[in-house]
Amino acid sequence: MRKVISHLGLLFFCAVVVLPIPWMVRTRLVPEYLSYSTEILPDLTFENYIALFTTKHFGTNYLNSIIVAVGSMII
To answer: pTM of the predicted model, to two decimals?
Structure first.
């Protein structure tokens, strides 16, 4: 009985750790107004990625992060 309870606890812990990953993938592939809907896979779209690379200056921010990270490693 002790092993069963231990395994159930481990399964619960694994679910708590692993389930946010598919939730993040789902959230980035659906429109913003459907982010918190209860459907598992509503209309999938890549609008979030298009907005990221066209309006958010992602490349500049990424380059700045790399410069800071490399600079801190050198120091």
So the answer is: 0.57
